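so my prof wants the structure for this chain in the tokens format not the other one, which i didnt know existed until like an hour ago. anyway here's the sequence
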Amino acid sequence: MAAKVVSADTIGPDEAIDEVANSHWAADPTAGTGAAAAVTGAAGAVTSPAGASPAGTAWLEVRFPRPTWFDTVAVVAPVGATDAPQGSKPTVEYRVEVERDDRWAPILPDHHLDRVGLHRIARVQAKRVRLVLAGREIGIGEFGIYDEQG
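here's what i got, hopefully its the right format
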């Protein structure tokens, strides 16, 4: 996904769709949620909130120029984020939502953030897709939206 950075932030939401293994997006812990920023490009835009969610949650939104079909979602943890002691539980959970009739509808229920979460879902068309995260030290390495059947 080619994108132009609008934010000067070095760990902004644009890092979640850049397809670079050692980059990542992290929510701003001082804001209680993700810092406001946006990315624009041929494939869409990515935004994250500033103070729009309760403490401990954050989200990234991908806005496509037109409704786009997809059937696979990938969520990748930042490099080193899953290097926790053996037997410890992941500290971040996520779900994926799409906008339908001006409301957010879940298409992928809650999952724990692991190294790579690759999810095949029922094929859906949407212009806006949101990744909602909850937990401590919220961040992701990549958020991918793919149409494998199309």
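also thought this was worth mentioning. Confidence is low (pLDDT under 50) at residues 1-10, 32-44, 50-55, 82-88.
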